[in-house]
Specification:
Order of helices and strands of chain A: HHHHHEEHHHHHHH
Largest sheet of chain B: 7 strands, mixed
Helix content of chain B: 40-55%
Strand content of chain A: under 5%
Oligomer: heterodimer
Structural class of chain B: alpha/beta
Radius of gyration of chain B: 22 Å
Radius of gyration of chain A: 20 Å
Shape of chain A: globular
Shape of chain B: elongated
Order of helices and strands of chain B: HEHEHEHEEHEHEHEHEHEHHHEE
Number of strands of chain B: 12
Number of helices of chain B: 12
Distance between the termini of chain A: 17 Å
Strand order of the largest sheet of chain A: 1-2
Chain lengths: 351, 417
């Protein structure tokens, strides 16, 4: 039930999954099985690197300009980091509660407006809003799960799905009512361009990227190294089994949804300086976040981060290959390919 | 065990939602708008705008503009030729969705509206125009640029704003004039346009006109305005191409991203040149992007701030709604005035009579244009034209042509670029 049953000393990328192996699998599997798995991982890394090199070569051939390609890669990674951050909370909720949470983007929008209010009213640094937005969104998530969604547990999945959709509409239009339709913005003090290998990126994007990686690491540690994380993974793997060994699954559901919502809160604060803030801004991230979640493997935090980076790169390089097409075209080409080859997602386990 | 359909739903449902934009019946005012049309009573005018959704900011402004026009006309004694009949506005929310606009238009007509104004999105206007034609009720378009709307031979649809063709041709001419006057004639123009019908139409006409005027076009980059989140790669491509000017045709959110990317990449352009851009000439734009937007141009239809009546309207709007009025709202204001003037002239509140009177309109506009509002055979406002604006010291300023100029254009506009 802990992280030990996988290859010791060499945590595989799959080790981050919330849908940890069934307890029955976790009997001695070191030795040959571990080595085989390690080899499989290296094969995967090799294939991935090969694809990346090929993608860059094609991009260079299409544009004939190294700076443009560097810029596309850098921008893609930065955007991808944000996508990963948004998708992390979603994948957690997906993995544990089996809820397709359409309100995730709306929760993110709430955090955007918390940031706006704090910056406009109190004049604080936008990142300080993390201290308010994360706990507030945690509580909001807990309240929504306990108050609204808990009643739908055990009912058909469409029920929960439609409830979250309703919450999203409620939040969107509530924000429209309270804050009006005019776009808002948040400036990061001292924001400027930073040059990396001839390409440029703004400091705010670089920080958002860095902090999202840190948050991903924290979430990973929470899931892997704490009692709570172990319980969450146990519920994800088998909720009736978890209940039998004395885990309060109702509480775990609530806490997981709250953590997922808090992730949306953190993402909202970090992207606030990067976007035009309108009541509908959260919707921008919804489709991409779902793609990232499925691509990375449902319920897999590391998968969400890697999936986010892949999608970010795909969008930017795709725009170079197929100028004039929606970035979603190249994203869905990659998405369909990945699902064709690995229906369980990049880091997902076969059910 | 996870069911595979969850995956399918997760991807399909948001797409479906994005495509259809929801279909809940919106709450609207004017439920008491019975018959209408009799003299000495109240006459209902329908207002169709996106009051919710991503264009809600403009939509609400436009609805407010129409309301102010109704109030002004009623305060001045209503329609005199109809015994001082009062006007009433029935507002409906199109949500920016063509099918919602269509059903709401039908509803307003059935509730007795003698004329419609709207709608902002070209796709919505196209559907509403069809409904208006079928029901023989006049429809005055305040904002919607697609040329196709008035190419169907409709008799009941009229448009106040300049068509995409006029906007783009004038945009190219102004660029040639302003850059030549400044002694830095533009040689190569890069184009960044949103990929929908609006951006593509502007791009096509602008390119043709600019080439005719001796400019080279390239690279031409399009993007999806609903999804784009960063332009640094595109602006880097522009920098590497050695273009002097970047023409941008798009909406508000993407315009802000362009300004930020230009500020980051420093592409060394003479000018960033908006044509009918939804961001560069809005009062909110300089506030949101700060220094990054300084010197940006936009050739677009524009409320005429050199006209005292427009200034008065702007003050009144600010007082009533606590916000700076946008050009779109002034167009809605004018659209209601056109209908009121037609009612006055016809002395008859039947839709057919109003339509015939609108066709013969000659009315001074609060918008900067070549002359009074007058409609040609197709229903286009013959004198509609864009003017050139530039962000100077954080304020959107009218700079060209000279008749409407509040200040001289600054060209090349290198600050922040």
């Amino acid at each position: 039930m802990t992280d030990t049953p996988t290859a010791p000393g060499a945590p595989t990328p799959g080790g981050g999954t919330v849908t940890a192996e069934e307890p029955t699998d976790s009997t001695p599997v070191a030795g040959p099985a571990g080595a085989a798995r390690r080899r499989a991982v290296w094969t995967r890394v090799g294939i991935t690197l090969g694809i990346v090199v090929l993608a860059l070569a094609v991009a260079y051939w299409r544009t004939g300009n190294g700076v443009v390609v560097t810029q596309a890669v850098l921008t893609g990674l930065m955007i991808g980091g944000v996508y990963g951050l948004v998708a992390m909370g979603l994948t957690l909720i997906f993995g544990v509660l089996d809820i397709v949470n359409f309100a995730h983007g709306a929760f993110l929008a709430v955090a955007l407006y918390i940031t706006v209010v704090m910056v406009e009213r109190l004049g604080v640094h936008p990142y300080l809003a993390l201290l308010v937005a994360v706990p507030l969104m945690f509580l909001l998530g807990a309240a929504v799960q306990r108050g609204i969604l808990a009643g739908a547990i055990g009912k058909p999945l469409e029920n929960q799905l439609l409830i979250t959709l309703g919450i999203a509409l409620l939040i969107d239009n509530g924000l429209l009512l309270f804050f009006g339709p005019n776009p808002r913005s948040v400036q990061l003090p001292g924001d400027r361009g930073v040059e990396i290998l001839g390409a440029v990126v703004t400091l705010s994007r670089l920080l958002a990227f860095g902090v999202s990686l840190v948050l991903a690491a924290l979430l990973y540690l929470l899931l892997q190294r704490t009692r709570l994380g172990t319980a969450i993974r146990a519920v994800a793997a088998n909720d009736s089994g978890a209940q039998m060994v004395g885990i309060d699954t109702r509480r775990i559901y609530m806490v997981t949804f709250a953590i997922g919502t808090a992730c949306a809160g953190a993402a909202g604060v970090l992207v606030a300086p990067l976007v035009t803030i309108e009541p509908t801004t959260g919707e921008l991230f919804n489709i991409i976040a779902f793609v990232v979640v499925v691509l990375g493997g449902m319920g897999n935090v590391v998968g969400a981060v890697v999936g986010g980076l892949i999608i970010g790169l795909t969008e930017q390089l795709g725009a170079l290959y197929l100028p004039g097409q929606s970035p979603l075209l190249s994203v869905f080409i990659v998405f369909v390919l990945v699902l064709f080859l690995r229906p369980q997602g990049l880091f997902g386990r076969k059910a | 065990m996870r069911k595979p359909w969850i995956t399918a739903m997760a991807v399909a449902l948001p797409l479906a939602l994005a495509a259809c934009g929801g279909s809940a019946p919106p709450g609207t005012e004017g439920s008491d708008s019975g018959g209408g049309g009799g003299s000495g009573e109240t006459i209902t005018i329908g207002s169709l705008h996106p009051l919710s959704g991503s264009a809600a900011a403009d939509g609400q402004q436009m609805d407010n503009g129409a309301k102010l026009a109704i109030d002004a006309i009623n305060e001045a004694g209503g329609i005199e030729s109809l015994d001082g009949a009062q006007l009433e506005l029935a507002s409906a929310d199109t949500q920016g969705a063509p099918e919602v606009g269509q059903s709401e238009a039908q509803r307003l007509i059935e509730d007795g509206a003698v004329a419609l104004v709207g709608t902002y999105q070209s796709a919505v206007s196209q559907n509403v125009a069809a409904v208006a034609e079928r029901n023989q009720v006049p429809f005055v378009i305040d904002v919607s640029s697609a040329d196709a709307i008035l190419q169907q031979g409709y008799k009941f649809t009229f448009r106040l704003q300049p068509s995409a063709q006029v906007l783009a041709e004038r945009g190219a001419e102004y660029l040639a004039d302003v850059s030549e006057n400044a002694g830095a004639a533009t040689k190569k123009v890069a184009i960044l346009h949103e990929q929908g019908p609006f951006g593509t139409a502007i791009k096509d006409t602008f390119s043709a006109k600019a080439e005719e005027l001796g400019m080279e076009i390239g690279p031409v980059i399009s993007y999806d305005p609903a999804r784009v989140s960063d332009f640094t790669t595109q602006i880097t491509t522009v920098r590497e191409s050695g273009a002097d000017v970047l023409m941008v045709a798009g909406y508000y959110r993407d315009g802000v991203l362009v300004a930020n990317a230009v500020n980051t990449v420093q592409p060394g352009l003479d000018a960033v040149w908006g044509v009918a851009n939804g961001a560069f000439d809005t009062p909110q734009f300089p506030g949101e992007v700060g220094e990054a937007g300084e010197g940006f141009f936009d050739a677009n239809y524009r409320l005429d701030m050199t006209n005292p009546d427009t200034q008065e309207l702007a003050d009144k709007y600010k007082q009533e709604f606590g916000d700076d009025i946008r050009t779109a709202a002034v167009l809605s204001y004018d659209a209601v005035r056109v209908i009121a003037a037609a009612l006055e002239k016809a002395g008859d509140a039947s839709p057919q009579a109003v339509r015939d009177a609108i066709a013969e309109t000659e009315l001074d506009s609060l918008i900067a244009q070549d002359g009074p509002i007058a409609f040609d055979e197709a229903g286009e406002n013959e004198n509609a034209a864009p003017i050139l604006m530039q962000v100077l010291d954080g304020v959107v300023t009218q700079v060209f042509p000279e008749d409407y100029a509040e200040a001289e254009p600054v060209y090349p506009a290198t600050s922040g670029q």
